[in-house]
UniProtKB/TrEMBL annotation:
UniProt-recorded name of the protein: NADPH oxidase 4-like
The FAD-binding FR-type domain, residue ranges: 285-385
Subcellular localization: Membrane
Reaction(s) catalysed (UniProt annotation): NADPH + 2 O2 = 2 superoxide + NADP(+) + H(+)
Amino acid sequence: MSVALKSWRANEGPKHLIMMFWIAVNVFLFWRTFMLYFSGAQYYYLHKMLGLGLCISRASASVLNFNCSLVLLPMFRSLLTFLRGSQRVTGRCVRRLLDKSKTFHVACGVTICVFSVVHVSAHLVNMVSFSVRYSEDFPALNVAQYRGQVSQIFTLIFFPGVTGVLLVLVLFLMFTASSYCIRVSSYEIFWYTHNLFIVFYIILMLHVAGGALKYQSNVEAHPPGCTHNNLSSWTNHKAAGEKGAEFSGAPQTVCQEEAHFQPHFPQVCLRCLYCAEWLYRFIRSSTAPVTIVSVVSHPCDVVELRMLMSGFKPRPGQYILLNCPSVSSFENHPFTLTTVSPFYGSIMEMDILSTCIFSNLIGSSALLSRPRVHVDGPFGSPSEEVFNYEVSLCVAGGIGVTPFACVLQALFDDWRQYKLRRLYFVWVCRDLQSFYWFADLLCGLRERLWRDNRPDYLNVQLYLSNTQGLQVIGEERYRFLSSRLRIGRPKWKLLFQEIRRANQLKRVGVFCCGPKGISKALHTLCNSNPHTGTAFEYNKETFS
């Protein structure tokens, strides 16, 4: 049980600790803002007009403002890549937390949607209160033009009301288009609607700058509830009675001047930082020249794209965002670098494997003219951590092998420079032809390790999930892969038991890039490690 707790603490502990801290901050912000508007002197008259609707609307707005800033943090790709590559700045635990940035982004997004409903509902109550409790003594506080005005009318003609309706519509589009079914069936809808966040933040700043709710700016000269000759007798009597109940025995104060009210102003610091980071990436990707050297067709409708780019310094396991204007001017798709090598001076040669973007260019005239592409990156991914364990298990499903291809290539170039001393590589495919994508690389690495007297360094297991018919890798030069090929699906529990026996009292890095079924099975086994002292740390490849 202690070892299972150790594995759970390594895989889930930091993530849950951060989430608990984030929830606590949200609760604190909501409660602090609620009490500020409930009992704050500067909001005394506004609270008397709106009641709890004011407190709830402002408390939810505080949570919204906090999460609307945090939701952008996982999108700071350049910053996250810098932190991941700074070995002296961040430890392995912190770097693994960076892999959960997408989960944090989703959590902030859901929180924004939930508290938007709370915020809108509270403001609908406030609109009714503005109409019913119209104040003739403090006209600056009023939103309604007269007592009894229909709240729906002045909501639509009032600037914060219009921007609020637009914000709800944009948020609804972004939230619904982010569902799993839409992302799988039509990624373009998700992409374009999610980029409405730019419109969302512009409207949000205008919405806050509208100044619907105001605070009293001269509390010292005009204490809440003080008597003033210009105020109506009803207001003075009500204020004196309420303040008398609150401050029993205190003498009634006299106002030195009339109450003055000012609106709040928006806070946009972090959002401006994200705009700066986005602009930097846009300029970098637009100005850096990219030359397509060759496009090669591989089995199973897979295309290999080989490019040259100057000033490009990636690390094994990183990925890029690729844009091809001839396919789409605005869409950027993530691709893992399968091979990176120096070409001439500061020019780097890189390869990627694609199953979608460039498939429609094969055999077309666009291929002959070498379509123009833009590259944004490189960016960090969990696969970079493969080298930071003594023992690593890499599991790939189909085209999910691409993050590990660059790892294998780096080991082929010089495996001695890394901390890694044993690699378990498992590759599951439906089609036998898929194994030919990196057959030469796998066989070459195995021969290199045999020459270096380390035959136990690499453990390769290939699984063909399609069990119909007899299928083998018949070529003589791929005899090594043929001996490692098995029909069916891996028995993960037996594999983990084998790794435990061979690597007791060690931390094993588990890396997965494949279907959800494989990922879930590996994640469960990593957290349920029973007897030996081996701890498995789970890492899931995602492109946020």
